[in-house]
Amino acid sequence: MQLLKSPVLSLLFLAVPVWAWAQLPDDFDLEGPLPVDPEVRVGELDNGLRYYIRENSRPENRVSLRLVVNAGSLQEEDDQRGIAHFLEHMAFNGTKNFRKQELVNFLESIGMRFGQHLNASTSFDQTIYKLEVPWDDPDVVDKAFLILEDWASNISLDPFEIEAERGVIVEEWRSGQGASQRIRDQQYPLVYYNSRYAMRLPIGSMFVVQNAPAERFVDFYKKWYRPNLMSVIAVGDFDAEEVERQIITRFSRLENPEGAPERVNSSVPDHEETLFSIVSDPEITGMSAVVYLKLDPASDQTALDYRQHLIERIYFSLLNQRLGERTLDATPPYINASVGSTRLGREKRAYAMSAGLFQGRVEEGLRYLAAEVARASEAGFSQSELDRVKADMIRGMDRAYEERENTQSSVFAAEYTRAFTVDEPIPGIKLERDMTRAFLADLDVAEVNRVGDAFKQESNRVILFTAPEGEGYELPSEDQLLAAIDSGRAMDLGAYVDDVSDAPLLAEMPVPGEIVSETYHEEVDVHDWTLSNGARVIIKSTDFKNDQVLMSAFSEGGSSLVLDDEFIPSLTTTMLLGEAGVGPFNTIQLEKKLAGKALRLSPSIGATSESLSGSSSPQDLEDFFKLLYLQITQPNEKDLAKAFESVKNRLSEVVANRSKSPSAVFQDAIEEAYYGDHPRHQPLNLGRLEEMDARLSLEIFKDRFQNAGDFVFVFVGTIDLESFREQVKTYVASLPTRGGEPEKAIALDDKPKSGRLSVDVKKGLEEKANVRLFFTGDAEWSPENRYALAFARGLLNIRMREVLREENGGVYGVSVFGSLGRIPEGSYSTGFGFSCDPENAEQLVQLGLFEIISLQEDGPREANVQKVKELHVREHERGLKENSFWMRNLVGVVSEGRDFSEILSFPDRVKAFDPGEAQGAAKRYFDMKNLLIAYLWPEYGE
């Protein structure tokens, strides 16, 4: 068996010391194929169809289903370019047992959402159909498998429906057009040099999409949708025996067509010379460079392959840490940089080096990127660096193992999809954890260092460079790019200094406070504590995740309490302090201090509140609380000046060309129409960055966060209440407080203008219009009003999709949005938006407005009312078993002063909801008297 095709990696593999796997069982076969996870049932029918079945109770009472077809755009003939993807659309537009829209209507009627629970995707090599359904109704189960069977063999391909869908495909293509796609169109022929990939983008040729006759669809469908190229995947809260019977019964009757062509993977040929793509674009806002070093794919079938994969991951992690550290320099050589491995189809992969570059410093950025990669390749990494990454990897694998019973079904379904399409092994998390621990236990740093030899490769190399068009952006030549890389390789950066600190995370323990009152809300199993410093702590202990505790802390006020000329320092406060670090640790030292621990914490300052969000493993809670205490009480002032220079340098490059982006110009125009020259609604540009002030940002941070009496801390997850009690008293009750009345956000003179407004912007090269409609105004906030608006939004989402997409083929997608604000004053903001052919924009706007008026005047359709109700009940049913759901709802209940019991009574309120309230919400919150219509037209438009 040829395990590795790459000569460099073959040498690496031969150097493996035999004692590295001593911790695995004596009879474990290192060189044979990895076993299949015993928790998954894998079978193959006589016709060649393969199936994967796994019982899994997360989420409860749900099943994730997949039909995977091992064929995609690479299987198309020249006159079929786009047919594979088009077929995916047609699967939702009529089958033997489901006429057009019946399938979507059925799924919506059982509380599933189109796009989230019913979807499909087409790539170069495969087409995947996804379906999630409840498992509590046998009729639903039967229909779900009937849908899969119809997709496999009974798509109608009605010529009339094909004609109707052409416009949707064109709009999907149009929505992806822009600077990024123009750049890719120039780069792909080099990345996929002399291969079929460069000529078979899944979206296809719009000439074919708009003109191909139905016979061409039928030919592709019959030729490539066949059982020996298919897999059915089912993961969920079900009986595996019953599911297997369904699959065998339904799919055994499928037959392979006679004389069908063999399915052959497409290759990406080698090339000795370096290929270059050096391009500019008037809508690109920044410079970047990517260097691809193409390699043959590494085998992943055996334990030794798995070990090699771990070594490669370690190398990239180590190198990326060094590259990231250099971005924290006061004057960094590049904005960002990274290395990694990526697939280029099934027959080729590549190592990639990439960097975001500064104007006027292109060669410097590339030189430092190449120098850092070369230093790692020549001198290698230190044992201390390796030990930290190993600790993180082992901890990550241990956490995955601890959560094995809580893994979502969709995660398993994606894994089994790869098992079918690219033969990825599925040994199961237990064996993966055991192999990781065994292989990393005695891993020698010299073996890791040898991965860097691959970066010395000069054949099979592609260098991609992109830049904005404009003054100061002269494109480098091929020779200049090569010279920068070569000089970087020869550059002496000196020995790497591993900047670590031996100081304890928290040198001096705080004086604990007390819990002065406790309330237990039995109905929702929530503990409610008030602390001696005035802080409030809400705790819900759950068993949804074995290794997760979530935290959200919030206080009203935010940037509304700073002066207008302090707004930019407020806006950049947490960015600066996040880079400076906490306590005696700079950011680099802190990251290394926390190696092997599963915790994160980040502060933010919004318009009306300041908050901290984070998460921790239960076993790391002590360190999490120490970090929380440090973050609030001891921001790192000594490294603030350096962080300020670094952040300002990188932000300056990011915002310098913001005006080249059509979407940014469009957004700025909308802001100007609503707010005029208000200082808090001006675009972030180089002039505004001069308002940054490190010392003022520090003072704002202290003012906003060092008053615990204003804060509510919410914790959800695996919490041992007794030990948690002591941690809260030590690290939260001890936080500083100023006393007095809780602060309130204040209303600023920045309400959006009322009346009928319009925005017309001409910016962009593509024949595409972007349309946004906004309704704004004052409103009385209440939970009832908020839900009525959410219900109206759900109704409008259904109707606008049906009318603008399905009936008129004018859009790929339409988004209806809406929210009801409470702080500092009641207000609403709603609307809808889409992209489309400029010639159709105004007509589609009118169709959308007509649907709003229809809801306002005629009320909702009963079928759609039931769909929205069922969707809301099903989402609540699923959410009750998720920590994030409880976090979101507990924060909402506490901040809004509502009763905890409302979280559980939601389904009853949904079922009792009067649809007339949704009609009333449409009248109040989609008020045609306060409407802004904004168009972003292509520059050539009249």
From TrEMBL:
GO MF annotations in UniProt: metal ion binding; metalloendopeptidase activity
Alphabetical keyword list: Hydrolase, Metal-binding, Metalloprotease, Protease, Signal, Zinc
Peptidase M16 C-terminal domain sequence ranges: 214-391, 701-870
Signal peptide boundaries: 1-22
Pfam families assigned to the protein according to its UniProt record, in alphabetical order: Peptidase_M16, Peptidase_M16_C
Recorded superkingdom: Bacteria
InterPro entries xrefs: Metalloenz_LuxS/M16, Pept_M16_N, Pept_M16_Zn_BS, Peptidase_M16, Peptidase_M16_C
Cofactors named for this entry: Zn(2+)
Domain Peptidase M16 N-terminal span(s) in chain numbering: 54-174
Single GO biological process annotation from the record: proteolysis
Family: Belongs to the peptidase M16 family.
Name of the protein in question: Insulinase family protein
Organism: Pelagicoccus mobilis
